[in-house]
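Give me a protein, keeping tokens residue-aligned:
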Amino acid sequence: MTTSVSFKWKYWILGLLFLGWSVGNMDRFAINYAVLGITEDMGLSASSTGIILSSFFAGYALMQIPGGYLADRFGYRRVIITSIVMWSLFTIATGLAWSLTSLILIRFLFGLSEGSFFPSASKAITGWFPTNERSRAMSIMLTSGSVMGVVTPIVTTQAMAANGWRPVFYWIGAIGLLFAVLFLFFLKEKEKADKKKPSETANLPAGTAQSAPLASVLKSPLVWKLFVGYFSIYVVSWGLNSWMPTYMRDVRGLDLASIGYLSAIPAFVGIFAMLISGVVLDKLPRGRDLQAAAGSAVVVAILLYLMQAAGSAAMFVGIQCLVMVFQSFVVILIASSALKHLPESNAASANGFINTGAQIAGFLAPTMIGFMIDASGGSYMSAFILMMVFACVSAASLLLISRRSKLGNFTMKEGILHE
């Protein structure tokens, strides 16, 4: 009976995490399209636009480790609900921004508010799902980003064309507050819904300690290599997400409505790529999954070169769809590795730290690309070269893990994870 209740609750919790991360992704993606109107209203340069797009990630990155610690210390339920309420309020505030400075500050605070959701959700997945199901569970939650990648450009570009960019943030913020109420009534902690049995820890790697301080986790070579890999692949991800709408307008000459529909196509492909990646990774032996992900990162670099050389907008979008497929494999591998190889008591802190790499990339990539575009007189070639280099760095970091781990055996000695 207890097993049946646990089975039902874990998918209910996963559904809530999916919905919560959906509205969070809509909040953060909307600025990539709103910035087209913001730059016109405020007369901003590419460099200033890049700073706006990056300001969210500065706050988001700073909150990853504290957010994970808070979830480990006080439970993920409180942290997630507080996060949704706060980010929804700052989403509404985005629509009230009156200057470049105010917009940068609001987006920074928005990122700070949203930063604790991912590590807290990671802890929820670790608590509710056994080791051999965590890649799939993580892929389902992260698929919300691809779903919102389809919905957000279509909905927001149409709404902005009809009403301007400000009202869109009021509406999205209100939806977030409604979701916070839903979470208040229905989100449960694992311990409260189903007492953990000693046997549930049997899937942890042999020799794994049940608790280790964050300082010890940060001494792990595995964690640092995952950090570098996640940072590097997200330079590609956030570079494309933040600048492709502007690129398609400036270089490909598309209007706002066309940009919205074309941007949705790679994201739609990404939905299936994320889900398939999770299933495949749970079936691959440890070590083989790292090699496959490293190879995928190299393919991403090659495809980025082909993207910038594409002769038409249709070919450009088609190649971007392939980038999404191979990029998804790398993202899911790294996002779920800590959940499989670290004890549950430290899962949120470890994944919060690893995810900090992705958010530092989100802070640096849009700003770097903006300055590079200005410095090159409006050319995007340097931006694609930057993303190609970091895709290769991600591949190298994963190959280093694969070579050291051989068959993928990881153990904890003296509280530090070793390969």
Summary: Residues 153 and 260 are 4 Å apart (CA to CA).
